[in-house]
Design goal:
Strand content: 15-25%
Structural class: alpha/beta
Number of helices: 14
Largest sheet: 7 strands, mixed
Oligomer: single chain
CATH topology of the largest domain: Aspartate Aminotransferase, domain 2
Order of helices and strands: HHEHEHEHEHEHEEHHHEHEHEEHEH
CATH architecture of the largest domain: 3-Layer(aba) Sandwich
CATH class of the largest domain: Alpha Beta
Bound molecules: pyridoxal-5'-phosphate
Number of domains: 2
Number of strands: 12
Amino acid sequence: MKFGTKAIHGGLKPDESTGAIMTPIYQTSTYIQDGIGNNRGYEYSRTQNPTRHALEKNIASIENGKHGACFGSGLAAIDCIIKMLNPGDEVISTNDLYGGTFRLFTSIFEKYGIKFHFVGMNDTSAVKAEVNARTKLIWVETPTNPMMNLVDIEAMADVAKSAGALLAVDNTFATPYLQNPLDLGADLVMHSVTKYLGGHSDVVMGALVTSDDIIAKEIYRIQNSSGAVTAPMDCFLVLRGIKTLHLRMDCHCSNGERVAKYLASHPKVDKVYWPGFEDHPNHDIALKQMRGFGGMISFSLIGDRLDDAHEVVSKTKVFALAESLGGVESLIGHPATMTHGAIPKEERIKIGISDSLIRLSVGVEDIEDIIDDLKQALA
Ligand SMILES: *Cc1c(COP(=O)(O)O)cnc(C)c1O
């Protein structure tokens, strides 16, 4: 099956009791048992729920994996992965990381004796230098937020394999339409479903996918034991969202390309960070592992003044000033004062988040309106 067909049908079947073509919202906490020890496959909705089960199978299908698991947020899904580790275990992670992931690793899990090393993953030798007998997990995020750096997933899979560690990839920015980490050698894929998979800015959810039966068993054990599950209504909304993922992503990609090229030619714009440009430092990795370049773009302004950036983000009308990304509507944000405001300026500048850096999540509105909006805001 090709992608669009999987998005619509993968892992799904019409409701057996009624023939309803859309998966019903099984808004129930418990299930009647025909006798003691004799249930119909469902006992309690923390453990399993038919609407969630359908979504888990659907997400596994579009990621070319065998098992899926859905959580109450992207961070709850990451939390589950780290709970597979033991005190004394070590993790090697990208240094250019989603802020919430960094906070989870350092402010929650370090105190339970798990050690995290943050390295630039463009340099495979820097990753290898951190490997030791306690290395149990390599954590990759690609493309990264907001600098749009890419990590070579196949190269990291090789490092993980020879270290005897698992490789997990946060595939939120690329989506399964543009990139499939399991096919490139990863053991686990994680999504903030909140973003492109949900796609309509109405749900917070996370997901994990793996093809390894033993890892899957462990994930389900932790999901049930820790209880960070997602609700049936939210699963229904995401099942609906995924049905158009391929259509939305084609539009995000083509609108993204038009916006990136427009910004690159604008006299007030300094740098544009978008992996589709031939001079992007990781363009070769994009060509190797991605099927498109997506709708996420960052750019800085000539003169690099904070006030100029604040003026631009306050003037847009199609682009709404907001956190998050991946919805049908265009969003604009200022990382230095919003998502990355907690990072000391020196650190922030080191990873490229300058004062005037602006991040766009290019939506699927008409491209003429999107460009006109940026034109008037930059004028
Ligand atoms: C939003 C995001 C997360 C966290 O997901 P939530 O659903 O907000 O918990 C993790 N990684 C990336 C890349 C994200 O954009």
